[in-house]
Predict the structure.
Amino acid sequence: MRIEEDKLRDYLKSKGLKFTPERQLILKEVFSIHRHFEVDDLFIRMRRRDNRISRSTLYRTLRLLVECGLLREVLFEERHSHYEHILGHEHHDHLLCLGCGQVIEFSNSSIEKLQSKVCGEYKFQPQGHRLQITGYCRKCR
Amino acid sequence: MRIEEDKLRDYLKSKGLKFTPERQLILKEVFSIHRHFEVDDLFIRMRRRDNRISRSTLYRTLRLLVECGLLREVLFEERHSHYEHILGHEHHDHLLCLGCGQVIEFSNSSIEKLQSKVCGEYKFQPQGHRLQITGYCRKCR
DNA sequence: ATCCAATTGCAACTAAAACTCAATAGCAAC
DNA sequence: GTTGCTATTGAGTTTTAGTTGCAATTGGAT
Ligand SMILES: [Mn+2]
Ligand SMILES: [Mn+2]
Ligand SMILES: [Zn+2]
Ligand SMILES: [Zn+2]
């Protein structure tokens, strides 16, 4: 709770932006969610607690949280964004079950190394990547 | 030109659907494009040739072409779909330059094998995957 | 305490895609 | 070839996700 707030405060200060009550509330709610979430999940949770933050402010603040490295945007096979914490989580990729919608996280350092190798071959400077395998989980296959 | 038309015809027949002039025109235009394209590219190209197909029909037909295995939907870092041919192209993944927007295709069988291995570990039955590396190409780095 | 730039919420807007529906047209059966 | 049923079409409307403009408000540096 302190670490993420500090990180946001530092980022905002460095850009001449302000740490508002709205941003504090959103940050708190975001870090009380321990799974992938979407904007509307957040909106509804905040409404339940009677924190009446507008959707505009949510969208604007989530962008800031991604920029300052607290969150990552995750695109599943849908037309809207999902988010997950970066702070306190190792990099990973996703298996996505088409049956039950379950998301399984995995990480594989050999794959990561081979990705670097591919980038080297193309003289491409990687900045990030997204690996997503769709299919059916143990229960749904 | 024959092979893709046969594939579409077969698929349509198997589903009790019809091979209409509109679908034929769209198929022809789609296979005259030899790069990634989006719906509006297709729409504009067809207008230029005075093939006045509605956007609704384009959206509906592209879905059919994906279903029957002629096209693949590709999601770059944008909020709308792109497409590419499957017929006559090996499976590949993409490097995406954030500078110039260039898309570089690559394929790496070791990565593919490791993906299978990961799926095995989770008893996950893969159906497809998407690997996208963002960064900067040789010219833009 | 003052002041100005940043922020907020709301409404209006946008882009991509899906849906509704009346008119039309494949195509299989006769 | 005609008929009839169902799929298809285009135009317009709706939905979804997100962005933008703006007037009122406020954080926080001085
Ligand atoms: Mn995750
Ligand atoms: Mn490609
Ligand atoms: Zn499942
Ligand atoms: Zn480039």
